Amino acid sequence: MTLEGKKTYITAVVLALASFAVAMGWLTNDQYQIVIGLLGSLGLAALRSGVAKSTPNKQPAGQPVSAPASGVTPAAEGTGGGNH
């Protein structure tokens, strides 16, 4: 079983369980703060990983952006493009 696409949800469920544990008195507020910090970091890392994987046609670093395939080139900078 792979965790692909499930890490963010798992992190959210564990955070909900930790909140329940505090409400039941099983965790102190100090312990809860540590759990929130760790799970928040894991959740952000999972989101970052998901966004990186979902970006199609990612341009490698340092590579110039190529012109559109239709042969249309972007307008020259400073031409305005509006009514004169």
Distance between the termini: 63 Å
Main sheet makeup: none
Shape descriptor reads: elongated
Number of continuous helical runs: 2
Helical residues, percent: 40-55%
The rounded Rg comes to 23 Å
Please indicate the percent range of residues in DSSP E strands (runs of 2 or more): under 5%
The secondary-structure class comes to mainly alpha
Number of strands: 0
Order of helices and strands: HH
Instruction: Indicate the mean pLDDT.
Output: 79
Low-confidence stretches: none
Label this structure with key terms.
84 residues, 52% helix, mainly alpha
Task: Walk me through what this model shows.
It is a single chain. With 84 residues, the protein is mostly helical. Helix 1 packs antiparallel against helix 2 (29-54). The protein has a domain at 7-53. It has helices at 7-24, 29-54.
Write a brief structural summary.
The chain has about 80 residues and is mainly α. Helix content is about 50%, strand content about 0%. The protein has helices spanning about 5-25, 30-55.
Q: How would you summarize the topology of this molecule?
A:
Blueprint: H1 7-24, H2 29-54
